Amino acid sequence: MNIPNSVTSIEWAFAGCSSLTSINIPDAVTTINGAFKGCGSLTSVNIPDLVTSIGTSTFSGCRSLTSIDIPDSVTSIGMWAFQGCSSLTSINIPDLVTSIGYGAFEDCNSLISVKIPNLVASIRELAFSGCSSLTSVNIPSSVASIGWATFDGCSNLTSVNIPDLVTSIGESAFRGCSSLISIKIPDSVTSIGESAFSGCSGLTSINIPTSVTSIESFAFSGCSSLTSIKIPDLVTSIGASAFSGCSSFTSIDIPNSVTSIGMWAFQGCSSLMSVNIPDSVTNIGDSAFEYCSSLKSVNIPASVTSISNYVFNRSGLTSIIIPASVTTIGLKSFFTNSPLTIICKGSVPPKVDGIFYAYKVIVPKGSKSAYKQADGWKDCDSIVEE
C-alpha cells in the first residue's frame, strides 16, 4: 500500500489489518501512533527521517517483522511499540533516544541482542520482558532505574551490567533469567525488589552491596545454583521466600542488623547445614526453614518469644535449644526427619499448638512435673531434667 505524500501523521489507521504485507510511509510523516498494531503479516516497513517518536503500540503484534530500521531522528520509543514482534531478531535504537516505554519490546522472543543508547535514563517496566532469545544487553551508565519486570523471562540472558547510578532493582526485574551466571550489583543500590532474581537457576554468585537495606520477598527464590551469599549489615528484614529453593546453600550468616526473618525465607534450602540467627531477631516467620533437610542444629536467640508454625518442619534437626524467652510454639514447628532432642531453658513450659511425640526433652531442674502436666508436652516419650 502507498500512502499519499500529503500525509504527515498516521494514527490507528491500519490497526488490525492482518493481511497487510508491506507499506510505504511518505517522507512527510512526523508522527506514527498505533498505526500498525496487529498487522501480523507485515514483513517490512520504512520509518521516515522526520519521525521523532514511535508511539504507543505502533508495531505491536507485527509478528512477521524480522528487522526494522529506526531513523536517527527518533528520541522516544513508546509503550508497547514493538510488543509481540516475535520474528524481530535485531533492532537499532538510535543514539538520541532518551526513553524506552513500558513493554516496548515485550515478547520479542527472537531478539538476540540490543544496545541501549547512552542518553536513556530509565528503562521502563516490562521493556524487554519475555525476550527469551536475548543473550546480552548493555545498559549505559546514564540509567538510574531498572523498572518492574524489565528483563523478566529473558531465559537466555547470560550477562548484564548494572550501572553505578542505579539505586533500586525493580520487582521481578530479572525473574526467570535462568542462564544468568553472575551479576554485579553496584554500591549505589539500596533495595532489591520482590522477585528481582527469582528463578535465576544458573546464578552461581552475586554480590549484594553494603548499601542495601532491604531484601524483599522472593528476591532470590529458586536460585538453585547459588552456593553462598553475604547479607549486608544494613539489612533489617529478610522478606518472605527471599531465599526459598536455594538448594545449593550450605551456610548462611545473618547480620546483627536483622530483626525479622520472613515466612518461607529459607524454605527448601536442602543443602543448608548451618545458620546463625543473631540476638537482634525477634520474629521468625512460618515455615522459614521448612524442608531444610541438611540442617542439623540451629540457635534460637533469647530475643525470640514465639516460634511460628512449621518453622523447622521436615528439617534435619537432631537437637535444638529453646530459650526461656519463648512462650509459644506453633503447629509442627519441629516435625523433623530425624529423632530430635529439645533442650528447654524455661521452667515454665511454652504453650504448644499440637503434640510432641517421639522427642527427648531436657528441661531445667525442678520443672519436669510442670512439663509432664502441660498440653503438648505430656505426650513426649522422654522428659528428663538437666
Summarize the structure.
With 386 residues, this protein is an all-beta fold. Helices cover 2% and strands 20% of the residues.
Walkthrough of the structure:
The protein is an all-beta fold and 386 residues long. The protein has a domain at 227-386: Alpha-Beta Horseshoe (Leucine-rich repeat, LRR (right-handed beta-alpha superhelix)), CATH 3.80.10.10. It is 2% helix and 20% strand. It contains one helix and 31 strands. The strands form eight sheets. A 13-stranded parallel beta sheet has the order 1-3-5-7-9-11-13-15-17-19-20-22-24, with no helix packed on it. A four-stranded parallel beta sheet has the order 26-28-30-31. Helix 1 (368-373) links the parallel strand 30 and strand 31. The protein is elongated, with a radius of gyration of 28 Å.
Question: What keyword list fits this structure?
Answer:
1 helix; 13-stranded parallel sheet; mainly beta; 386 residues
Q: So, the CATH homologous superfamily of the domain at 227-386?
A: Ribonuclease Inhibitor
CATH hierarchy, class of the domain at 227-386: Alpha Beta
In this structure, how is the largest beta sheet organized?
Answer: 13 strands, parallel
User: What's the rounded overall pLDDT mean?
Assistant: 93
Q: What is the strand tally?
A: 31
CATH architecture of the domain at 227-386: Alpha-Beta Horseshoe
Overall 3D shape: elongated
Number of helices: 1
CATH topology of the domain at 227-386: Leucine-rich repeat, LRR (right-handed beta-alpha superhelix)
Rg over alpha carbons = 28 Å
Low-confidence parts: none
Beta content: 15-25%
Helix content: under 10%
Quaternary structure classification: single chain
| Class computed from helices, strands and strand pairing | mainly beta
Distance between the termini: 91 Å
Side by side, the strands of the main sheet go: 1-3-5-7-9-11-13-15-17-19-20-22-24
